[in-house]
Description:
Blueprint: H1 2-19, E1 39-44, E2 49-56, E3 60-70, E4 78-85, E5 94-102, E6 115-119, E7 122-129, E8 138-143
Antiparallel strand pairs: 1-8, 2-7, 3-6, 3-8, 4-5, 4-7
Amino acid sequence: MRILAVTVLALAFAVMSAACDNGSSTTSPTTTVTLTTDTFMGTVDPGGSAFNSFNVAQAGEVDITLTAAGPPPTIFMGLGVGTPTAATATTGATCTPIPGVFVQGGTQAGTTPQLVGMASAGALCVIVYDIGNQTAGISVSYTV
Length: 144
């Protein structure tokens, strides 16, 4: 009987609350953001670079992490963001770095993002490059 009384009171409160609605809403629209992570791997030759394109579905934060580089695992690599260009009949696809959107002096691989920024929706690319200290090819892995 006690459970029935609590249920009836709860139901009565819900009905009264609904009856008091003055037509205005205090709820805010919700935005659903889908987070995605892309992982890329490549090799950077001395004096060279590796890049991969990615798509930003909607404006928001983009985090880029150089997760592995080596040997040696302590090597500093250049890391930047650019705009991709499509391959043509005479050239391959390229990644044109955006001025000022790179890690000054290079970075070592790690577990926390080395580049964090806001991006508009659209195509971008990550470029990893030799900053002048390589003597052999370096295997790299990075996430966006």
